Amino acid sequence: MSVNYAPILWNRQKKRYDRIMLGLITLYLILFAAFQLLFRPEISPETLIIRATATLAFLMLHLILMIGPLCRLDRRFLPLLYNRRHLGVTMFLIALVHAAFSIIQFHALGDVNPLVSVFTSNINYQSISQFPFQVLGFFALLILFLMAATSHDFWLDNLSPRIWKSLHMMVYFAYALLVMHVLLGVLQQEGYPAGFIFLGIGMVAVSSLHLAAAIKGKRQEERPEGTTADTFVPVCRVDEILENRAKVVIIRQENIAIFKYDGKLSAINNVCKHQNGPLGEGKIVDGCITCPWHGYQYLPENGQSPPPFTEKVATYDVKVMDGKVYVNPKPYPEGTTRPAAVIGV
Amino acid sequence: MPNNNFYIGYMEKMPASFRKPVRLFVLAAAILFSIGSFLIVRSQQAFSTATFELGQLTTVEGILRMEPAPMLQLETGKDSKGRPILQSILLIGFGKHGAEATLEKVEAQRKLKLDGKKLKLEGTLIYHDGKTLLELTQKEKSILDVLDVAPLNRQLTELGQISLRGEIADPKCYFGVMKPGEGKTHRSCAARCIAGGIPPILKAVSNDGQVQYFIIEGEDGEPINEQVLPIVGEPVQLTGSVVLYDDWLVLRLKDANSAQRLSARFMLEAPMCNSGKLN
Ligand code: HEM
Ligand code: FES
After folding, report:
1. Which class would CATH give B156-278?
2. Interface A-B: count of C-beta contacts within 8 A
């Protein structure tokens, strides 16, 4: 998908996603402003903007972090994952409005550069309770910026998926920074119990979903034991695999997806070259294994993306004996053609 | 899961069975946003009723005093003994700056001293809790007129050594420009304003909840803006001598480093006592 980024085109589904997202954002901002004018009309417009955008971006970050584990728990949430990039970039832009207004409000028109002031106006770096909380927000914003700026597949290709993935894992670090930004900032100032309760609920929701997804993933992992190295390992019965679907096994660190289609079986590496999506949870569409995350495709017999694309994954030997499936966990170089195992009658 | 349930993002339609969870998520987000915005707004602390008349210029006339900080004195009436009742309007520069720089520029332009002269100023009013400030919004152009007048006598009263508990803030933000204009979230801004030459004030609260404001300066009336920066926006206890300059209290500190930091809990739990000895 190095050539024309085919899966990232606009379609009805995607436009709907964006419309719903923008609708919810508008709903939040209008409600926030309305409640504010109703209950706390003395607020200054700057503080209103700073608080409305801050809380919106932070709530959105919670939702973004929950989509991943939700999809692992139930695949029917996948449509939410597909366009998560837009959600992330929009959240960054909203956080940027918050940060820009904060920097202008608290640091501009002074005797030093506003950005320098963010770091020097409170120098209690040695204290926990008096720590300069705005600096934490600054670094979180920097991470969100790097993620938003590199979110297009162009960067995925140029940075290599491994670096890209680790960059995007930093969202958890950004989340931790923001929890501290809120704790040592507004919650410390206002001291209200409700704030601590909200933050607690948010953190529990995010972490418990991740935990549940990890436990489910571990439970589903099948690790059949082979007798000796380099030989075929029994996996399951042929009829346990649905047509055009796969069975995933981990044997000696190899994460393998065995697909059944057209009376044949083929095995490829389970990890998608795009963003490490689980190919074994995908389906064969138009003769190609299709990744469930963003739809990258691979041919079952050689693990290659159909031309003009150039992605390749490793392949494995499969055989069928007495209605049982066996796989040899020794990988062939990525893109090597291996004959499919024919399912006899 | 039935075999035909497979979704790829570029498909025009998602399978029917995917609709329910996706709708559920969107609904949950809508409920979260509605209830969340309500709860977040409701749980904020109340804002002060301080006022900054942004965009509205007002003209005031009075006598300029450079001590203890630049202020314009207006006679608002006479007391029973026939002495003038004065109101001192603290002058502040544009942005996060004190008024001195602007006044000095005008002195240089007009080649005269402004202290003690009658000035006609145009600026933006800031007021709260009985105190009034004027921002010289248009910098040098805020000084419309300078007139000679007979000197007004100042009323100075020495009130002796006092220990006060409270928070150091910058008067510009505290009395109107920002909400909240004090506390930890505002600390950086207060530090910027005080570093920029706006006189620091101590907001002290007595045991019975009475609030008093003190302009902070050094032992001999010199500015100590730089020295107080590390303790701005924190609960502190300060000890110094207090002087009443007409209608403004001034706290003269021997040494800003002698300030005692108080725990944040203390601020939340107990109002500050404004007198008495240090223990
Ligand atoms: C340069 C970066 C940033 C600066 C200077 C900054 C500054 C501030 C300031 C001054 C406050 C307190 C405002 C108040 O009195 O209400 C605040 C609160 C907050 N910030 Fe940031 N921030 C930054 C980045 C971020 C980012 C990236 C997020 C991500 C979502 C974020 C989320 C929040 C939240 C949730 C609050 C508390 C909400 C509230 O104000 O009521 N901030 N920030
Ligand atoms: S298509 Fe994105 S991870 Fe497979």
Report:
1. mainly beta
2. 194
